[in-house]
Amino acid sequence: MIQLPIATGVALAVVLAALAAVRNRFVRARLGFAAVLLLVAFGFEAALGRGVGDPALVGGLARLLLVAGGIVAAVGLLFNPWRHDRVSERVPAIVQDVIVIALFAVSATLLLDEKFLTTSAVGAVVIGFALQDTLGNLFAGLAIQIEKPFRVGHWVKVGDFEGKVQEVTWRATKLLTKSGQFIIVPNSVMSKDPILNHSEPTIPTRIDVEVGASYDAPPNEVKRALHEALENAPLVLREPEPDVLIEDFAASSVNYRVRFWIDDFGRDNTARDQVRSNIWYTFKRRGIEIPYPIQIEYSRDEQHPRPPEHLQRLAERLGAIDFFAGLDDIERLRLATACEEHLYGARERIVRQGDAGESMFVVLQGRVRVTLEPSGQEVAVISSRGFFGEMSMLTGDPRTATVTALDDSTLLEITAERFRDLAVRRPSMVEEVSAVVSARRQGLAQAQAAADEARSSAPAPQSLLTRIKSFLNL
């Protein structure tokens, strides 16, 4: 049989060699603890060599510490990755601790005498009664690790507690709330109460937003507006596809439930904020009313035509744009009166590249960003008195870029029908705008080429003029 000091020295050398090779901090901590046990075993062996204490007891303790150090080191190395800084998912830390304790108990039974075991058994009974709650949490934590109703990083709700799982220890489960606070929930509570896991069986989580609309608004029109609001929310996933349902015919409104998916439950409030904000702006543009509660009496403002001074300011702004520089005051005022104003919220998409369109927009207030898909390259930032979308209005071409509001922006939309009315009264206007449009189109084509977009070159002014006249039936 190998002598005890030699066995301890070999075990310590192996543990230290493994400690130098392993990069996993959890395993290194286990190996460090094993090394301490082996050093203590050396101390007992030194005492035994000098004749200090009862040889049987001191020798038994030295052997027990040697075995304990070997068990701790072996379990840590066998069940955890050496190079990756994480604990094994199949055999979590608490399960590894149970294995170590079980093997240690068996070793103690084999190595120590009956008297010591009898004393230990009595002590274990006394400690067991004193630590009933702690032991209950221990076994509950062990059951949680074995059944795995959740893992570290999952968002869960247990009773009144909700948070992201940070750690499962012997006694409790640590949750990090959305407000950045820790909640320590005893494992016995976790094992008794129902657990709602927002991260299982799939990571995307569906959340709801409810909104009321006027009874005067057709449901299909409201649903189209709600889908438009969802498309402009960055946190809303396209797959799985969101949907809109009529929830209730309430006292003062038709209530709609908007259901959509996000990939991070921790940002559910931010996602709801994005969707609700977009709904307000979209309803505002489409003239859909969100009614006040019927219990509240309020004075309803009737819709009035835009005041003459406001229309005059719009006409003056149109006159400052080279696209409409050839119009006289009366023509610009007529155009301003016939067109509609729209309010877009910050980060809302106004038009998408490739979509059909038969209108252009003049920026009255705010700023918009023009980008190319799919690269997302920024082409331009258009501020007040700028315009975009003229190609779609003049030729019916699909949108050649995506335009998104940078700030809350008010836009004047000019449709092809309104522009045709002007062209019929003033035929020379078509020739005047064709040169402006050709220059802008050529600049956009160059930007697309720089972004490695396969785009055809811009047509010559004469061919563009022909297309404009054909589309407008001139």
Description:
- The protein is α+β, with helices and mostly antiparallel strands and 474 residues long.
- The protein has four domains: 4-130; 149-197, SH3 type barrels; 205-286, 2-Layer Sandwich (Alpha-Beta Plaits); 309-471, Jelly Rolls.
- It is built from 15 helices and 16 strands.
- It has helices at residues 4-21, 25-49, 55-79, 93-111, 114-130, 132-147, 187-192, 219-231, 268-286, 308-319, 329-338, 390-395, 416-425, 428-450, 461-471, and strands at residues 155-158, 161-168, 172-176, 182-186, 195-197, 205-213, 243-249, 254-262, 340-344, 349-351, 359-365, 368-372, 377-382, 387-388, 402-405, 409-415.
- The chain has a five-stranded antiparallel sheet with strand order 4-3-2-1-5.
- Strand 2 (161-168) and strand 3 (172-176) form a beta hairpin.
- It is elongated and about 120 Å long.
CATH C-level category of the largest domain = Mainly Beta
Question: What order do the strands of the largest sheet run in, or round the barrel if closed?
Answer: 4-3-2-1-5
Return the average pLDDT rounded to an integer: 80
User: Can you name the CATH architecture of the largest domain?
Assistant: Sandwich
Helix content: 40-55%
Q: And the CATH topology of the largest domain? A: Jelly Rolls
Total individual domains: 4
Distance between the termini: 108 Å
> Superfamily at the CATH H level of the largest domain?
Jelly Rolls
Structural class: alpha+beta
User: What share of residues are in beta strands?
Assistant: 15-25%
**Rg from alpha-carbon coordinates:** 37 Å
Silhouette: elongated
For the sheet with most strands, the description reads:
5 strands, antiparallel
